[in-house]
Amino acid sequence: xxxxxxWFNYRHVAxxxxxxxxxxxxxxxxxxxxxxxxxxMACNPRNPKPATVFSHKNMELNVYGDDVEVDYRxxxxxxxxxxxxxxxxxxxxxxxSKRLLSDDRSNILIYMTGHGGNGFLKFQxxxxxxxxxxxxAFEQMWQKRRYNELLFIIDTCQGASMYERFYSPNxxxxxxxxxxxxxLSHQPDLGIGVHLMDRYTFYVLEFLExxxxxxxxxxxxxxxxxxxxLCVSTPGHRxxxxxxxxxxxxxxxxxxxxxxxxxxxxxxxxxxDLAAFESKFPEDELATxxxxxxxxxxxxxxxxxxxxxxxxxxxxxFILGLWALIIMVFFKTYGIKHMKHVF
Amino acid sequence: MxxxxxxxxxxxxxxxxxxxxxxLAAFIAERVEVASPLSAWKRVVEGLALLDxxxxxxxxxxxxxxxxxxxxxxxxxxxxxxVFMVTDVLTAVALYLAIQDFNKxxxxxxxxxxxxxxxxxxxxELIQTPxxxxxxxxxxxxxxxxxxxxxMSCVAKSTSAINNSVIAFFILATIKGSAFLSAVFLxxxxxxxxYPLTLFAxxxxxxxxxxFIPVKLKSKxxxxxTMQYASLYLCSLVVIICLSFFLLNSWDFIPSVYGFILxxxxxxxxxxxxxxxxxxxxxxxxxxxxxxxxxxxFFYTIPLAIKLKEHPVFxxxxxxxxxxxxxSYPTVGDVALYMAFLPVWSHLYRxxxxxxxxxxxxxxxxxxFPVLWHLWIYAGSANSNFYYAITLTFNVGQxxxxxxYFYAFLRREYYLTHGLHLTRQDGTEAMLVxx
Lengths: 343, 435
What we know:
CATH class of the domain at 7-216 in chain A: Alpha Beta
Largest sheet of chain A: 4 strands, mixed
Protein name (chain B): PIGU protein
Pathway (chain B): Glycolipid biosynthesis; glycosylphosphatidylinositol-anchor biosynthesis
Number of domains of chain B: 1
Family (chain B): Belongs to the PIGU family.
Shape of chain B: globular
Membrane topology (chain B): Multi-pass membrane protein
Order of helices and strands of chain A: HEEHEEEEHEEHHHEHHHHHH
Main location (chain B): endoplasmic reticulum
Number of helices of chain B: 20
Number of helices of chain A: 12
Strand content of chain B: under 5%
Largest sheet of chain B: none
Oligomer: heterodimer
Number of strands of chain B: 0
Distance between the termini of chain B: 41 Å
Strand content of chain A: 5-15%
Largest interface: A-B, 14 and 17 residues
Strand order of the largest sheet of chain A: 3-7-8-9
Radius of gyration of chain A: 36 Å
């Protein structure tokens, strides 16, 4: 997710596209990637090299290749859409490419970059997402069984504040800088006129270029990327919510789509299970003649039933009491002498 | 005097019958100003239907009428229109007779005070003459029957008409002097809607006056009479409530009727002050504010009793007005009842200060109620604040009307004893101000 727009935030788009490129290269198809770019740098009128987004000066690496598929573009990148993608609470008309169709066996990688502060990340210069909202969104995902394990990488100023509030299990988080520190950009390109990448993502990209689908590099190596000497800010990470030891977690668990394939040479018989299944449920011996529709409901009985007259009547005692009182009041007021007229 | 009354009654019945037969009847029947959750006819029908199905009508939160109303309408439901017209007529006739008697009492008292030289010498123009008092009872009946508010209540078949008639009979019984009947009708009125409890004080004061018992806290005869009246009232109330138990063999009606009146759970908009306030109140505070609002109704009784000790019927008028402004589910039918009394104090006209503006306020607000309701509910271009503003204005108008009459009454009393031309100590002209 790239959350910044405007030409001078070129580097955020380049960051996002580099990570996109790496995960695609390592095997994750576009149908499994949701790419959100808040602005179009490749076709920006200020781009001297249209249709390209470079990650390294001297235009060594064009991360905007031929097959970039942007799912949420421009003004569609909002906090609401981002949270809806994460939690799956999307209107039914949303196309599949805009959905995160994950289940409880999916490992999810979330990479966010942009301008941030202590506890928030700015979206498009008009709104923010807070670390609390993000933590709650992840909790929703956990409760809806939308992920097995989740890797959260954020490259913004004071990025570590964004993962402070996570409380759902199986989340590992990396950030480019601690609270109180700014993440700095790498180097400007004088030909394009803007900074091309942020330091942290630059070194992460360098690291990821070395990974191939079969590599056994684990998370601890990722934590070592970009030490303070190179990055000026101190990258941070959080593994307390993660159940496995980071030592045992492969990079390709999150960044690549590596399937475990076991090749076997023995044949497996499927028939015997079917036979066992069928023997449990014998043929129905009860009904021999099919029932006619009309006999199933006692319609004749129902329609000729007289409706029960449940009329309510006030109880006799009440009527007696009421009228006795009224007569008593009447005679008390007007005197007993009227009694003889009644009788 | 019977013939003009009969004429007025016929005219009123014709107007109501004509409206019953017209298409306006359905429209008026669902107006919230006329039909509150306590008095709506729809709910009576619903309750009786539930009863026919074998379910207690109090089991849902729809039906909030007392068992005696169930009994009354069980047999008369087909003649409902006639019942309500007859109720209105009975109310008017009761008020007519009551005011006739009251005029005699007023006149006698006035004569007594003149002979005792209690009045200042120059107040001849303030004294009421039998000539001008002759038509007051007719005007009262007229005001009640032809008041658009009571016509609308009748057409909507709102049971506030029954409330009004019981209170009217109570007033008649009190003015005639029969403590027993007055206690019985007051118990019925309290049983019907809780608030006429406050009318105990003016009735007691009037009856004491009639028996020539002075209202002194140390006097034994005062306490004796008070105890008698209170015990009559409480006994009849208890008897009526126990009798209602036997109608359905359950005490369900107590939380449904009195619990509903006191705790105001239904916040349907009406012309009162409760609904808006409690719609926006946090749960935490609602109990406190319910207590405050309900105490507000009962609160004015004691101070008014102290001030209006000598004038219990005026006290009764002010008390009825206060009930109909501050009760939890007021309708315009309640407003019609105290407005019927205004001709009795037409001699205060020269002292009323704001009567023009107040009548304009009341008339405009009555016209604006359906307009803003339409804008809020149907057109969607207004919201509840608009309707509440009109409610508030209407109630403020009513309160100012009552306080204006109160001021005028006290001012007249003051002038009667101190003379019309008041002078201060240094001889310049003085002005009476109500503090």
